[in-house]
Amino acid sequence: METVQPTLSVVLVTRDTCWLTCQALESLYAESKETAVEVVVVDNGSADGTLEIVEKRFPQVQTIRFTRNAGFAKAANEGARRTTGRYLLFLNSDVYLLPGSISCALAWMEKLPSCGVVGAQLYHEDGRPQNSIAPFPNFLTELLGRSLVRRLFPSFYRGKERRPTQPLPVDSIIGAFFLVRREVWEKLGGFDEGFFFFLEETDFCRRAWDAGYAVYHLPEVAVRHRQGATAKQWELPARIEYWRSRYRYFRLHAPAWERGMVFAILPVRLFLECVGDTLFVLGSLGRIPKWRRRARVRWGILGWHVRGCPPTEGLPRD
Fold it and tell me: Which CATH class is domain 8-230?
């Protein structure tokens, strides 16, 4: 009997987020009833029994188990290699798909063959919008910060403050919901596994544009996202990974002058932020937990820089 190629292949990478993963899968199957779909869950060294529970509740799901944390890019690539669908959808384990998300995203892809990657509008659980568009990092975004740049230049740097109401071509999208054409994925060779955690989707979108494929944000594709649910378990190590990925992105994509300026200015800015955080903590007599936590994390990142940015620090690899 001839095997029918699925329209959509979904890859979900998880690490110690069992109940979130199950909720994500429930929403996925509810929203893909009219679509031929295959699903792969890649477990990145969980210790909470995620795969055992997933296999019991969702026997139709393919599972892959890493005995250690291989990083998001490597795990996602391995999951994608096990699939055959015309479209690949990478989902974070902390998302919940809202009605029409799958059908709307696929319809757009069918309508616009030049589009290689599609992202959704992300929302907090209480309905507040999240930033769903990620501009390519540059000297300005790193000097001033993305939040300030969005406010100063809203026409060039879109965010939750001025959300688009129509499909919009963008630099890159937040990877919680990341839909890509199979042909684009194969042409670009998947995610760059040099990114362990953070910015792998930004790098992929940059390479997609360079290869002639557009990246679109679709505001009508709605996804609930428990933002940072995984990273919050490992706050300082996760921030170190972000800084490491940040530097890698500039080494790969920035001209020499911009790369040099960013590498010189970022540590100075970080030191000034550490001093400012400390003054806030002292001024409040240490009574505000948010400020204490922020100061502790930033001083930790500064310490990582002082130690020469050792590759052994960051999120656990085992």
Answer: alpha beta
How far is C-alpha 160 from the chain's CA centre? 17
Written as one string, the DSSP assignment of 215-266 is: EEEEEEEEEEE-TTTTGGGGHHHHHHHHHHHHHHHHHHHS-HHHHHHHHHHH
Structure token pair of residue 44 = 């990145």
Check if the beta carbon of residue 227 is closer than 8 Å to that of residue 124: yes
Rounded-to-10 torsion of CA 47, 50, 55, 56: 100
Residue 159, helix vs strand vs coil: coil
The tens digit of pLDDT for each residue in 68-122 reads: 999 999 999 999 999 999 999 999 999 999 999 999 999 999 999 999 999 999 9
Residues 6 or more apart whose CB falls under 8 angstroms from that of 49 comprise 18
Mean pLDDT lowest among 163-172, 222-231, 285-294: 222-231
Residues 201, 245: Cα–Cα separation, whole Å: 11
**Joined tokens for residue 255:** 């001209």
Q: In the chain, what are the domain boundaries?
A: 8-230, 232-306
Q: Which residues are bridge partners to 180 per DSSP?
A: 88, 117
For the chain, the first-to-last Cα distance in angstroms comes to 42
